[in-house]
Specification:
237 residues; binds adenosine-5'-triphosphate; four-stranded antiparallel sheet; nucleotide-binding; ATP-binding; globular; 10 helices; ABC transporter ATP-binding protein; transport; six-stranded mixed sheet; AAA+_ATPase; 10 strands
Amino acid sequence: MSALVVENLVAGYGDARVLHGVDLTVGEGEICAILGPNGAGKTTLLRALSGVIRTRGKVRLDGTDLAGRSADAIARLGVAHVPEGRGTFMPLTVEDNLRLGAFVRRGKAAIEEDLERIHTYFPVLKTRLKQAAGSLSGGEQQMLAIGRALMLRPRLLLLDEPSLGLAPLVTRELFRIVRAINEEERTTVVVVEQNAHLALGIAQQAHVLETGRIVLSGTAQQIRDDEQVAQSYLGYR
Ligand code: ATP
């Protein structure tokens, strides 16, 4: 069964249409990479999926219709969005940021358990719990943003450019952790990423978005082997 089914998704800002009928499906527990040039609409696609902007078309998660619902309602249905720039509350402590991630949940014991689990993925956060989020390094802030998203216990995790501004070593570690989360929690992941090598390294399938349309879809291997993708996004051939 597909976890996420998107059909003829249209979205934009005011009168400016950015997505012109996007179709994609992501299988339950899979990682799907969205590649594409600047301005293609990748961020807009994630915003449309999480309800940050209004959309037309069909978006279904495990059979439940998300289209037209508010961002808050979509979060309650298990969609966690880690935006580009991370959306961390800098003056708040690491712990408060993590707890904010559980804003739609009840059940104190389960929340405490999840905090512990997140520390196993991101041990560095445990040592920084009482620090202001703004004092963390870029990599730690990205970890915090993903940790906060996990506090929602998401069924679908949307990651926008997680590697942005991070050193290669930090980025590789971050992607390793995303893969571990996906495997251990069975969380379905949609990741928008400029670093196509990294994204295709953890994804099962990928789509290339250009000027608001999906122009190429396939397994990560098929996309990696595509001549055009290799030239445009992987920097060889
Ligand atoms: P990038 O990698 O540069 O972030 P992207 O593929 O994520 O690119 P989007 O950020 O989705 O692309 O932008 C797609 C188009 O929508 C661009 O033409 C952009 O100028 C426009 N756009 C993005 N955000 C807004 C906004 N808040 N208001 C109006 N137009 C916007």
